[in-house]
Design a protein that fits this description.
Blueprint lengths: L4 E9 L5 H9 L3 E5 L6 E9 L2 E7 L11 H12 L4 E7 L3 H12 L5 E6 L1 H6 L2 E3 L1 H8 L3 E3 L8 H21 L2 H30 L9 H4 L5 H28 E3 L7 H9 L5 H41 L6 H19 L2 H16 L2 H15 L7 H7 L3 H7 L6 H10 L9 H11 L2 H27 L22 H20 L1 H14 L5 H17 L3 H22 L1 H13 L6 H10 L5 H13 L8 H8 L2 H13 L4 H11 L2 H30 L1
Parallel strand pairs: 1-4, 1-5, 5-6, 6-8
Antiparallel strand pairs: 2-3, 3-4, 7-9
């Protein structure tokens, strides 16, 4: 029996070098997402089978060096020096070779099996850059391959080179002394780690005023003693030597014919990053995303809704009359009604994620971050804060994790406080249910765009308010690399969209399923007493005896059924809780049914949709098949619908956000303060909107 050899490969490179695109091409859909141990830096891992070998690729964070100043650099340095990976693949942007080679030399000093991939070689050629690959390989002393990641060119050559180097490594181990080689490699790794992190440790020692270590007076004043100066001089000399080596390599391997006219990216940036029209263009782009999401998504959404209706009808028709009514109601109303009402919005979710992935992969999202930088300073935040805010449009939890990139405590707390105001993907099912229910098609896109805009404006106001309570610190410059514009790759965008869609489906099949069952139970129990049931049965009997007209009988019987179901709902645990909340809900235009669903939304925002479906599957006794949107439109006004959208936008972050806020802020008091602040703002603004709207429409 042949044992499949397992190979671990580390992919390392600068940000925007196309590393993740190559990772997607190498691994396809065989990927897992997690965090590196001890930090919230995302870890992408994928596998592929090639020539009987199982190759595992680790997509390391994009870094410029291994200095360990940031979590990303620390993760990359620790993984490369401490984890026993079989091979390092250094992905290099061929169009920016000189800058990328600094990391290449650092990786080479680790003395591990390695080769270089010149990615985006087509972009380099379009810019008039000619690279002598053979000369570059000879000067680096490493194998060098070329690739065009977004077209899948060079993938087979990369896999073949992996096998060749691994076989060479295995042969060397067989012919030499494995134990001695391992000891030498371990010593080399320790020396490399000590070298690349020396300056970072010195900087921390100098800046840590509360440290118990003794420093000379000069060091305490921000200067360096003779010993420190000699150490920094040594590190500086090493860097100078590296840059001289990079210059020598580029002179002998690169020919650059600088074009006289601006390239395509420069021309586009002249418009898209213009200080006057850049922001309106960004808002217009997001508006088009939301409008297309509804316009295209309504058709598959209707197909899924019809499929779930057919499934429920078939189960009801085939279920034995009078047998196991508990399980019948649980399956049809609880599981199918709850989970199905969330999954019906999967097409909208996929289209939204697809559009955002295209904007990210094309290079435009980096421009959006740059555009917003100067505006962020006006509200007391740094330009880096825009990055977790953009992530917040997908999910608030990873956005809170991303605030680790903010070194200033004040800025980090302020950013975390306002992140829930950026509409996450979990709110989108609420929008997708309520907006079509209360607004015609031509208004659906503008209303959704307005909600996102309101969230952004509120975030600005809250951030400005919070900045008044923190002392102002010196600004740290915002540095972000703008990648060249390029057409997004179908494979990369598709994988990102499907991954996010699958996460949404898993949430529907686990968390929302469990919550739907709980909410179904508290909506249906304890139910009516025996006396109450007997009273309604008596009314039906009298009606059958005294009314002969069939149409009148059906109408009156429907009234009795509705009265019974309303009594059943109000007597349930959920109904009792909603009625307790009703005095606070009435000023916003909400009834106890909406209040019951809002309680469920505290666990997860999507649960609001599931709970409304469960409530109205109980209360809707009509014979015809009626969608939830039609039922809501019949029971509530468009003003109430908009107020409900506004409240769900602002109020009560979900439990996952609450827990992550406590973890990342280091205290439960910040999480509680955030929850109370946002819920209070939501109640106040929604009440004002409803009361003014009611007066205006009267």
């Amino acid at each position: 029996m042949n044992v499949i050899q397992k190979i671990n490969i580390a992919l390392a490179g600068n940000p925007n070098c196309g590393k993740s695109t190559l990772f997607n091409e190498l691994t396809g859909a065989r990927q897992t997402i997690g965090n590196f141990p001890g930090v919230t830096v995302e870890r992408n891992e994928g596998q592929t089978l090639y020539q009987g070998r199982k190759i595992t690729f680790i997509d390391l964070p994009g870094v410029y060096s291994l200095s360990s100043f940031s979590d990303e650099e620390r993760v990359a340095a620790e993984y490369l020096t401490q984890v026993n990976s079989d091979l390092i693949i250094n992905i290099v942007d061929a169009a920016n070779l000189e800058r990328n080679l600094y990391l290449t030399l650092l990786l080479k000093e680790l003395n591990k099996p390695m080769f270089v991939v010149l990615n985006m070689i087509d972009v380099a050629k379009r810019r008039g850059i000619e690279i002598d690959v053979a000369a570059l390989s000879r000067l680096l002393g490493l194998p060098v391959l070329t690739a065009i990641g977004n077209r899948g060119i060079g993938i087979k050559e990369i896999l073949a080179e992996i096998i060749e180097l691994i076989d060479l490594k295995n042969n060397n181990l067989k012919n030499g002394n494995p134990n001695q080689n391992e000891q030498e490699n371990e010593q080399e790794k320790k020396e490399a780690l000590n070298e690349i992190s020396w300056l970072e440790r010195e900087s921390k020692r100098q800046n840590d005023k509360t440290s118990k270590e003794k420093h000379c007076h000069s060091c305490q004043q921000g200067n360096c003693c003779e010993k420190c100066q000699s150490g920094i001089a040594w590190q500086t000399a090493k860097d100078i030597a590296r840059y001289k080596e990079i210059n020598r390599i580029c002179i002998h391997s690169v020919q650059s014919l600088i074009p006289l006219e601006p390239n395509r990216s420069d021309l586009l940036d002249g418009v898209l990053t213009n200080k006057y029209i850049g922001i309106p263009v960004f808002l217009l782009a997001m508006y088009l995303v939301f409008q297309l999401t509804f316009t295209i998504g309504q058709f598959p959404m209707l197909w899924i809704e019809n499929a779930f209706n057919i499934l429920s009808d078939n189960i009801i028709a085939s279920w034995p009359e009078g047998q196991w009514p508990f399980f019948k109601s649980l399956l049809v109303d609880g599981i199918i009604g709850g989970v199905g009402s969330v999954l019906v919005f999967l097409p909208n979710i996929l289209f939204l994620f697809l559009a955002i992935s295209i904007l990210e992969d094309s290079g435009y999202m980096a421009r959006a971050a740059l555009l917003c930088d100067r505006w962020m300073h006006k509200i007391g935040l740094h330009g880096r804060s825009i990055v977790p805010m953009l992530i917040g449009f997908g999910c608030t939890v990873p956005a809170l994790m991303a605030t680790k990139m903010l070194s200033d405590r004040k800025e980090r707390l302020t950013t975390m406080f306002v992140l829930p105001l950026f509409s996450c993907g979990a709110r989108f099912p609420i929008y997708a249910m309520l907006i079509p229910a209360f607004f015609p098609l031509q208004w659906q896109g503008p209303v959704l765009w307005l909600l996102y805009l309101i969230g952004i404006l509120l975030a600005i106001l809250v951030a400005k308010l919070m900045s008044c309570f923190f002392p102002k610190n010196d600004d740290i410059p915002f540095i972000i690399e703008l990648p060249p514009y390029h057409f997004p790759t179908f494979r990369s965008v598709g994988i990102q969209t499907l991954k996010r869609g699958w996460q949404y489906m898993k949430k529907a099949g686990t968390i929302i399923l469990g919550i739907s069952i709980v909410l179904w139970f508290i909506t249906n129990y304890p139910g009516l007493s025996a006396d109450q049931k007997a009273k309604f049965e008596q009314q039906r009997s009298l009606l059958l005896q005294n009314v002969q007209n069939e149409e009148t009988l059906r109408t009156e019987m429907s009234k009795i059924d509705n009265e019974e179901t309303q009594k059943h709902l109000s007597n349930s645990y959920a109904g009792r809780l909603g009625q307790m909340m009703e005095p606070a809900l009435l000023p916003m235009g909400f009834d106890w049914k909406i209040g019951t669903a809002l309680v469920g939304a505290i666990a997860a925002k999507e649960v609001f949709v599931a709970q409304m479906a469960i409530i109205y599957s109980v209360s809707n006794t009509e014979n015809e098949s009626t969608g939830l949107a039609q039922i809501l439109a019949r029971n509530y006004s468009p003003l109430t619908g908009f107020c409900l959208l506004l409240f769900c936008l602002i109020a009560s972050p979900c439990m996952a956000t609450f827990a992550m806020m406590a973890k990342e802020s280091g205290s439960w008091k910040w999480a509680i303060a955030q929850w109370l602040l946002l819920t209070g703002i939501a109640w106040f603004l929604t009440t004002i909107t409803y009361q003014l709207g009611k007066q205006f429409l009267a």
